Amino acid sequence: MKKMIITSIGVLLALLAGLGLYAWREIGKAPSEAELKAFENLPYFKNGEFQSPQKMVYDFDNVRNGPAGMMRFLSRSPFAPKKPLPQLPLSKKDFAEKPEVFAFYWLGHSSAIMELDGKRLIFDPVLGNAAPLPLAVPRYNKAPITWAELPKIDYVVITHNHYDHLERRSVQALKEAQFIVPLGVGAALRGWGVPAENIKEMGWGDVFEEEGLKLSAEQTVHYSGRGLGDRNKTLWNSYILQSGGKNIYWAGDTGYGEHFKAIGDKYGAFDLVAIEIDGWNTGWPNTHLFPEEIAKAVQELKAKRVIPVHWAVFDLALHPWHESIDMLAEALKGSNVQMLTPVMGQKIIPGKTKTSKWW
């Protein structure tokens, strides 16, 4: 019996060590003290942390559909769809060698491939779960493409380092591409094998230009962090993409704020806005956008078309998986903004392809 107990303890310790090593690898490296020191002169960096334009508000006594304990992320959500969601599987053969002038493939949640003026970009590629441990924060359905089937990507655009936006396996599958990321995120990428020369870190107001593509980074109301001690050690961005006469806004994760009108006045009108619609809750009222705030934001951005992202893959906020899209569709009724709702994996050409209510 004693030998059996010792063996069991040994197996348990080995399992815990294995999980710890796995999590350490997935968390990735945070910026060093020297790297953080380089940010000290920025107006939005103070006391060793990046600062949100608004103080983040948390009221866990006011959580809608609570409780919001971490254990809920270890099993399938009661708010998940009851049957698999429709999607169109993708592989390398579905992508031409030369990217199109303008095309869009939503991969689910905030992940998408965009072809723009002969260049191919991928945004926040996450094809697995959204946590540093296997099986935690599971997907409703598998992604419409695998890491091995990703096409040649010219640019990988990361909005911030949360697990539902930055994934080690996707980074390593794409490490030959040019990465455009918020300040501080380069530390994790380098630790995962991305060459330093392939990484462009950007702060608010910074501009990246290459071969006709202009990409400007702007603020959002949010925060960052992957481990216990790195909260707000890296920045969070939205992006304006301009190329081939197209003007596109990728909003990233954000609560509502004055930045929408400022960005609309500075860069708008936008041919296309990709904006998050899910993850809102009364317990964290300015971490993500409520549907009525999205309707207001797209007007302030002077958007012609909007593609809702950040939904239909993970339960991050304790509400039915289709609630946000239903509410947004209702809020945009009668507006001059066209809402595009492609099925995951579907190729669309904004301005030409018609989408339908598939949910």
How is this structure best described in words?
The chain has 7 helices and 16 strands. The protein has 359 residues and is of the alpha/beta class. The radius of gyration is 20 Å and the shape is globular. The chain is 20% helix and 19% strand. The chain starts with a helix and ends in an 11-residue tail after the last strand. The longest helix has 26 residues, at 2-27. Strand 3 (102-108) and strand 4 form a beta hairpin. The strands form 3 sheets. A 7-stranded mixed beta sheet has the order 8-7-6-5-4-3-16. A 7-stranded mixed beta sheet has the order 9-10-11-12-13-14-15, with helices on one face. Strands 1-2 form a two-stranded antiparallel ribbon.
List the helices and strands and how they pair.
Layout: H1 2-27, H2 33-37, E1 45-46, E2 49-50, E3 102-108, E4 111-116, E5 119-123, E6 155-157, H3 168-173, E7 178-182, H4 186-191, E8 199-202, E9 207-210, E10 213-218, E11 238-243, E12 246-250, H5 259-267, E13 272-276, H6 291-300, E14 305-309, H7 323-331, E15 338-339, E16 347-348
Parallel strand pairs: 5-6, 6-7, 7-8, 12-13, 13-14, 14-15
Antiparallel strand pairs: 1-2, 3-4, 3-16, 4-5, 9-10, 10-11, 11-12
